[in-house]
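Entry 12.
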Amino acid sequence: MVAWFQNLTWMEIGLGVVLLAIAVAPRVWAFLVKRRRRKLGNHFVGDGRHQLREVPPDNTPQAVPMATYAEVKREYERRHQYWEKSTHQVGTRLHELDRLDYRQMDAVKVLAHATQEERGNLAAILGIGAGAAPTAIVEALRKAGSHGLMSAMRGGHVPYEEVVKDVAEELGAKGFDKTASAAELEKQAVGAAIDQMLAKASPEERKAMLEELAKNQPTTSATGLMTATGGLVLANLSGFGLYMAASSSLAAITSAVGLTLPFAVYTGLSSVLSVVTGPVGWAALALAAIFKFGGAEYKKTVPGVIAIASCRARLIASQEEEMDKLRKQQAVLEGDGHRLSVLASFLAGMERAGTEHSVPRSSVPW
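Predicted 3D structure (tokens):
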């Protein structure tokens, strides 16, 4: 056999391979077609060599998701209960906040709403016990603002409003209504302190301060603030901008009198300043002359009044911010209430049709 194979020429071997391929090819093709059919199922036409048979569409009706009366009612009751609770909470809180008129409160009531830290700082300024009550704090401030002999003649210390007017004038406030409320007088004192600080600031520092204050103001006030000159800065201050001005003034004033407060105060303006003498150093220099010539008690009354002004400004700003958020929640709840009324009408229609019936889920005004 080997000898016979060795005697074949290359042409004879090639011819044999071709004849073998021709003989085997039909069997291989049939095998492949059967295998393909097993994979795809009976989707071929003819001998299966050209195209797949088009699969007929499935006309079997699909099940429509349905909702029962009981299901719709449960969902309505769940949403209505949550809506009622939320509406009551928002309305109650808005009413509570609306009754708190911090602008008309006297100093004692303002300090009753102050934080423990704010009262602690005032106690340190006035040199009284750290846990002093609001009444005791205001009494100490009135005492510091009263002349001993005049107090004896009056039979008591001057009113808090008199102390605030005196502080505002000492800080340089001019042309203000001396019969105004305590809150307005405090604002005048803060404005005078800010003017003192701005007067000693470089153009770059002034611009940085006003930009920082403007971030916390409404658009119209922010625009007016950036272009304000002289005492007009005060006219454009409100909300958190006024609080920032008051607290930063307090930091500068306590620095001027060399007093370290037990609790940190918010000094948003200080973060934008970069001066050799420190964040509030130049501001302290601007205010130091007041205490140099004004007497020992001004070291208590000036920072004391500014501290109460800062506290009042924070309370007003926080109140306004919270009320704004609550009003927005109230508007959303009103929209939810309208959608609930639509769902209630749909539910009533289902009840009239019979509680045993179901409706397509897509038709329910969820």
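Annotation: The radius of gyration is 42 Å. DSSP finds 15 helices and two strands in the chain.
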